[in-house]
Structure formats: structure tokens, C-alpha cells
Amino acid sequence: MSGQELANALGWSQSKVSKIENGRTRPSGDDVQTWLEACRASTEALHHGSELAEGALVESRHWRVVHADGLSSGQGGVKALEGRSDTVRSFQPSLIPGLLQTAEYARQVLTAVNVSGQSDIPEAVSARISRQDVLYDSDRRFEFTLTDAALRWHPHGRDILPAQLDRLLSIATLTNVSLRVLPLGASFGHLQSNGFLLFETQDDPTVIVETFTRELRITDPQEVAQYHDIHTRLTDHALSEDDSRSYIRDLATST
Q1: What distance in Å separates the CA atoms of residue 254 and residue 119, rounded to the nearest whole number?
Q2: Which positions fall inside the HTH cro/C1-type domain (predicted)?
Q3: Of residues 216, 255, 214, the one with CA closest to residue 116
Q4: Residue 49 pLDDT > 60
């Protein structure tokens, strides 16, 4: 079957088929299923193909693996994604995102999550703070949505919060940064128990979800689109940017 014949059978453009064949586009799980069915694959091949597609589109790594070479090494991969992204969207229900953390807040967070017992926390803090340079690239867009709990939570002591809240207010003045707060009592619009980062790149948009035990990297186009929709709905229920700044300012005054 030629590429054009396959495209006709699938109801796709020949260009889409060609890009998938040459590795320039990553197919979704449904794309793989449709492709195999068009080629009259056996039931066993369909099942195996679905498993391979799932493995290719969702990378799951335990934190011990992510941090095998130290906590600082994990910052490099995220920094690379941030550097390739046109837009970064973040939702955090319980802590300040790494791109917005002060050095002391980052130190306390990294100490708290150091399940693998690494000794390079100072280097990891430095690496996390260096990632923040990308915020000042006006060609990139950053959209942060935080809950009230994320603003109030502290790893080891409230004394770090005034500087952290001041940092948020400073970053919120950047024209390429949107910072929105979901206050207590607000409808979430979507039940979301895990924070996530959505990196919108020209080639393979990626979502990172951090659980207690592992990091998930999702590149399935359909799942990525779902996370985009979730972030939009959460943001729609948040305060406006101006009201969010006022909310943070009032919280800083009372802290």
C-alpha cells in the first residue's frame, strides 16, 4: 500500500502520513489504532501496537531514576523544555512553581522532596533559580494559576513567605507573565488533584505531572489537549490578574 493509498484509507492527508512515517510527527494512541486497523492488523498486533504507543506517549520515571545523578540534573531537562516553548502553562494546588520560587523557598522544597537522599541541594537550588532567566524573554508567554493554599503553604516555616510573596508580585509585573489565583471558596471548574506543567513547543508539546513517587511526561496530542482545556477552565474560575495581585498583596500584609 502506497503512502497516498494509506492516507485515503485513513481519511488523512498524505502529508500527515509522511510526517508520521519519517518521525516528524508523533501519532496519538487513536492514530496508531486507526493505522493498524486500516492495515488489517491482527488482534495481537493491535494490542501490541497500543501498548507501544502508550509507552512512547507517556514516559513514567520514579524520582530515584530522575534524580539518579543528583537533584540538580533533574532541573536541566525542564530547563531545556522551557527554552523550547512558546508558552508555558502551570497549575499548582499546593506550592509555588519552581520558576517563581525564591532561593530559600526552593531550598526548603527540594529538601522536603529529596526522597533519594542526594547531597547536591545547593547546586539544585542554583540550577532552579537559573531556570528563571527565561521569564525575561519577552518572546515567550507564561501562564501561572495557583490556589490560595499554594500561596500559604510553607515547607518548614512561615518566615520564608513574605519574601516569596514579594517575588510573586515582582514577576507578575512582567508583560509576558500571567499570574492568577484561585481563592478559597472559588469553584474550580474541574477537579484537579495534581499540579502540572504544559510546555507548548513547535514540535512535541509536553505535559509534566509530578506525583508523590514519580514524574510523568505526556506527549499524546489528545491528552495534551485535555490538559490545555483543564488549565483554561481553572484559569477561567480564577481571579483576574489585577485582582490576583491585590489578593497576594493583602496576604503579604497579613503574613
Answers
A1: 36
A2: 4-46
A3: 214
A4: no
Rounded CA gap, 138 and 73, in Å?
26
What is residue 194's DSSP assignment? Answer: S
What distance in Å separates the CA atoms of residue 100 and residue 182, rounded to the nearest whole number?
17
What digits encode the pLDDT tens for the residues 123-172? Answer: 999 999 999 999 999 999 999 999 999 999 887 778 999 999 999 999 99
Q: Tally Cβ neighbours within 10 Å of residue 95.
A: 22
Residue 45 has pLDDT above 60, yes or no: no
CA distances, 152 to each of 156, 194, 216 (Å):
12, 17, 26
Q: Which DSSP category does 185 fall into?
A: T
The pLDDT value recorded for residue 57 is 73
Q: Is the dihedral of CA 183, 186, 188, 193 positive or negative?
A: positive
- Write down the domain spans for the chain: 3-41, 59-254
The CATH number, out of the four listed (3.20.20.70, 1.20.1250.20, 3.30.870.10, 3.40.50.300), of the domain defined by the range 59-254: 3.30.870.10
Terminal CA-CA length for the chain = 68
Which tens digit of pLDDT belongs to each residue from 158-217? 899 999 999 999 999 999 999 999 998 877 666 667 899 999 998 889 999 998 889 999
Range list of β-strands (E), the chain: 58-62, 85-92, 141-147, 177-182, 196-201, 206-210, 214-218
What does the DSSP assignment read for 113-153? T-TT--S-HHHHHHHHHHHGGGGG-TTSEEEEEEEHHHHH-
Residues with Cβ < 8 Å from 242, sequence gap 6 or more? none
Question: Going by C-beta distance under 8 Å and a sequence separation of 6 or more, which residues neighbour residue 166?
Answer: 252
User: What is the rounded distance in angstroms from the CA atom of residue 177 to the CA atom of residue 180?
Assistant: 10
